[in-house]
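User: Teach me something about this protein's shape.
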Amino acid sequence: MIDYDIAICGAGPAGMALAALLVNRGADAARIVLVDAKPLEHAMQDPRTLALSYGSRQILEQVGAWPIHATAIHDIHVSRRGQFGRSMITRDEHRLPALGYVTRYGAIVEALGAVCNRLGIGALRPVRVSGSDEAADSVALHLESEGQAARLLRAAVVVQAEGGLFGEQVDKAETRDYRQTAIIAQVNTSAPVAHRAYERFTNEGPLALLPQDDGYSLVWCARPASAQALLALDDAAFLTKLGETFGERLGKFTHATRRLAFPLGLNAGVTGSARSVAIGNAAQTLHPVAGQGLNLGLRDAAELARVLARGATPQALEQFAAQRRQDRKLTVRLTDTMARIFANESALQPLLGLGLAAIDVAAPARAVLAELMMYGRR
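Assistant: First, the predicted structure itself:
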């Protein structure tokens, strides 16, 4: 007996968005189940910052998971530290209310969790998938939870939507260690510019400041040794170093929260089988330089919902792979190229200022770049 048509392993933003989109397209909620190792209440407390493109907002709107608490990005300022040339992308050029939004991971899962509950989509939490066995007509998942006996769940199709961090994953077809560490924190400045995001390229990697509430979400990419030195500084010394690296466009940096760090790399490739498929971070873990990780995952979810709503079959998964190939490939290539140029003091770095200046005066080039960032390859 098959318990469900579709089992989604990982009830994060991509997994829950997929479940809601499936029901929105006519799938039976009772035939869908979410499996996750964390209680929803725990996930809702996750303070991590995420960047949503305008295209991702449209996906969330489809299922009623918008609006959420988020800060709109009206402009994106891109520059190279110590060199001539910069580019500015604005919402007015594209006649949109925003280019994107900055929000917390917890805010997204709270909104999507409420939608899934309202739609009657079942969730097994906290439950861990310890293994799987695939047969001709279904996949059996081995489930474990504290205080309960191990059990089996059978589904016609299994979707892996839980990716984890780079360095903790099984290597896929394409993997690359950028030898960079990302430092993240919330910071405040003395002269903030409302709704403007900054991407500042340095010798060791990109430094991004994303407007969030009354301050900024910082993502500072540096070589591991430099990152460890930055983590060891007290708050005052850290803010001084940040100001020296970023410049004075926002005045002085006045406050920083506790700093966290994680390694950066690429781990991507087609994974799955006749009756299983991976989406989002489980399919492709990317460098944050272009802010495309979650957005690519939500585009995966939207296309997978479209094909699976017609039937949970191997043919549907084949169609999904074909339809997503170009967008995935282009986004991975673009992100990887940017990361390699900006992570290792590439010989191409001195040309970045000229490139940014050229993009700034060429409206068609800015339009193409913005379209890719907001909607992917369509």
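Now, about its shape. The first strand starts at residue 4 and ends at 9. The chain has two domains: 4-74+100-171+266-340, 180-264. If you'd like, I can walk through any region in more detail.
User: That's plenty for now, thanks!
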